[in-house]
Amino acid sequence: MNLHNFFGQLKRRNVYKVAVAYAVVAWLLMQIASQIFPFFEIPNWAVRLVVLLLIVGFPIALIIAWAFEATPEGIKRTETADAMPQAGRRKNNAWIYVVVVGAVVSIGLFFLGRYTGGNDAAGGEAGLSKRSGYSHSREVYRGAAVD
Prior knowledge:
By secondary structure, this protein is mainly alpha-helical. It has a domain at 1-84. 63% of the residues lie in helices and 5% in strands. The protein is built from six helices and two strands. The protein has a two-stranded antiparallel sheet with strand order 1-2. A hairpin with a 2-residue loop joins strand 1 and strand 2. The protein is flat. The N and C termini lie far apart (84 Å).
């Protein structure tokens, strides 16, 4: 089997798309499990189980993506879908616009939070005393007896 032909088959059978989609959804589920499970006092082994199941499911999803293809008539085996005539499909690149808009919003929110915050964020001790209501000044210690 030619290596170039193999990667062409992966692309044609949408294995790349399934791998990326699975990785994104798995990452999201891991983040949700690690943040929400402790709140509901679900044991740590449950978070580990979610991660393990997602890792084990990854190659299974890739095998299913290789063997089956989604067509307008439903899910069919790849050999059957290959035999069907290709309707003049127009390539839809709407996902590119979604990614670009998401990146622009993400970068905009990053800079918005970075440059619109107050100046006492890096204020050190003075910023801490303002936020917490605790003062480190000498006047607090004047009446205290020091041994």
